[in-house]
Automatic annotation (TrEMBL), chains A, B:
Family matches, as CDD domains: APSK
Organism (species): Acacia crassicarpa (northern wattle)
Domain APS kinase: 29-179
Protein name: Adenylyl-sulfate kinase
EC category: transferase
Function (record text): Catalyzes the synthesis of activated sulfate.
Gene Ontology process terms (BP): cysteine biosynthetic process; sulfate assimilation
Length: 207, 207
């Protein structure tokens, strides 16, 4: 029995079927691929392409998209600093559950602050947290502006927008970086290929 | 683009690999088995036994245990009424994600209030929400008292304890009920067998 945060009289329930068993069933290892970067840097594109590539190899993945979660789990949160942190904390906790379930969890969130990403990493076994930095220039992201948000931010209609009037803190020790080569962005399938190679090399695509 | 709750400028991101594809990979259908009942009624026992039975059939399930979630996702919540409701809301949202990922999600929570359980049901396709009521007499649960909590509640050391000084509202239209037969509790494997039969009969154990 333990007292945790605001809860008392909480027990930990252990089941006979554990992560190892689920991984055997799926022939893969559960982990979290945490994709971070500016709005418009291609996070969702990578996550979707990656889920397609993994699926074609018979691997089970699931995308946790920051925006999508705000339709459900995180719909009580807004964009003030403490809510942004809580948004990322909850996403990290859910990603951890998916990894424990044996899935390759693809978390796609701007997650601009280093300390929030590091908090998520600290929740789980470090080797199961693969931070992928979409290292694209702000100018490119702003030119793409797929959601029209940079325009709104520049016009002052959105406050605290990452890259405009709120900082993005690039990772210092991420596992992977996706960037332009000679000023050209890799195609989605090429970006996904990079991550698949990494996962394969580290043994995540077998149990 | 939409405004949702406290969030604005939120888009919905759709991927090419969807629930149907994941279900084909797993040869099962994603759903939520929501196990409700008094403390000591056997919820966790059923969830664990069920995960074992499903695993032995090559089916992927994952247990969301109310107490376990309070160690992570819900560690900011206590047991006051609004936090209890939020605890259940978040669990429902996460269970929905697991079902969408193609898993048979086994949610095990006292979830004493009808409106909270119905809120979770309303989050998803009704046919994918299977409410299992552990219909055990309070006297039996209190006699078992596996966590020693009834004793504390009777001594006034825990306030608002379900069944003692806070109500348990039994389901009115649950999909399944587990109860004593001639005053005898079914063995865990028998309880699990009941649920497996239900899932099989409804086509959840094939894609």
């Amino acid at each position: 029995m333990s007292t945790l945060g605001n809860s008392t009289n909480i027990f930990w329930q252990e089941c006979q079927v554990g992560k190892i068993d689920r991984q055997k069933l799926l022939n893969q290892k559960g982990c979290v691929v945490w994709i971070t970067g500016l709005s418009g840097s291609g996070k969702s594109t990578l996550a979707c392409s990656l889920s397609k590539e993994l699926h074609s190899r018979g691997k089970l993945s699931y995308v946790l998209d920051g925006d999508n979660l705000r339709h459900g789990l995180n719909k009580d949160l807004c964009f003030k600093p403490e809510d942004r942190a809580e948004n990322i904390r909850r996403t990290g906790e859910v990603a951890k559950l998916f990894a424990d379930a044996g899935l390759i969890c693809l978390a796609s969130l701007i997650s601009p602050y280093r300390k929030d990403r590091d908090m998520c990493r600290a929740m789980m076994n470090d080797s199961n947290f693969i931070e992928v930095f979409m290292n694209m220039p702000l100018e490119l992201c702003e030119e793409r502006d797929p959601k029209g948000l940079y325009k709104l931010a520049r016009a002052g209609k959105i406050k605290g927008f990452t890259g405009i009037d709120d900082p993005y803190e690039p990772p210092l020790n991420c596992e992977m970086e996706i960037k332009q080569i000679d000023g050209v962005c890799p195609a989605p399938i090429a970006m996904a290929g990079q991550v698949v190679s990494y996962l394969k090399g580290r043994g995540f695509l077998e149990s």
